[in-house]
Amino acid sequence: VEHIITEGKKITLDSVNYEFKEEGNQTVYFQFKNEWCFYEGLFSNIKHIKEVILSNFNEYYMRIPLNSMFSGCTNLTSVDFSKLDYIYSSSMNYMFNECINLTYVNIKNLKAGYYVQFMFNNCISLTSIDLSKIDISGAENLNNMFTNCTSLQSVNLKGFKLDSTYTMKSLFYNCYSLKYLDLSSVKLSRLYDVNFAFYNCSSLTSVNFLDFYSELTEMVYLFFNCSSLKQLDLTDFNTNKAKKMYGMFEGCNSLISIIAGPNFVINNAEEIN
């Protein structure tokens, strides 16, 4: 297996620790090895990498964490997963955390086992992303997945199945450039916590919640300062067990109408205003 950086330099790597000490390189071509390796934090805080192209070795199928894999790569602009045949990761927390110059992610054939918290946290240059070709149906925790992605305008979640997800707190927190979100194909069953999920999404004009059916219990500041929203269809929201709903529509100054279904009730809520 070769792990090659451009300019003709080869990196000598062992199966546990990868050290990229070269300066001035821009593109990394990396193959996952067909053995147990430690990939968590692999490229973490490497400032001189601008592009990473990933591929498989013998269609490797692994169940190890990719946490913080690119965290702190502040000059990284592009990551390409298109050459992967299939990779299964048990956890992808903070995978692109603080990649403040990241503008392009081609991601597919990737499956997350349990956690994707803060996956794109503070990726302030990312304007769009297509996640329709990855599988996070086993992910339990999506908290802060896109927090502070302040340039993010569109996210493709077509066909997403979140069968195991129970919390997506602050999912799009402070994504104030996000204009439209289609969650109509997102299938849920266990979700209960959506606190701050669309907090300060001030450019959001429409959210499609068709079939967004789950017994929600935590909804604090859900649409806080979504000042461009004019109408919300919450027909499929089930709030029979909701305990906290305060600040849910605070700052929604353009909101004219809310369409609620028979399961949108506030009788059992302990905190609401």
Based on the model shown, name its key terms:
273 residues; mainly beta; 16 strands; two-stranded parallel ribbon; disordered N terminus; six-stranded mixed β-sheet
Descriptive report:
This protein is mainly beta. The chain has no helices and 16 strands. The chain has strands at residues 4-5, 9-10, 27-31, 51-55, 78-83, 87-91, 104-106, 110-115, 128-130, 154-156, 161-162, 180-182, 187-188, 206-208, 231-234, 257-260. The strands form six sheets. A six-stranded mixed beta sheet has the order 2-1-3-4-5-7, with no helix packed on it. A two-stranded parallel sheet has the order 6-8. Mean pLDDT is 84; it is low at 1-17.
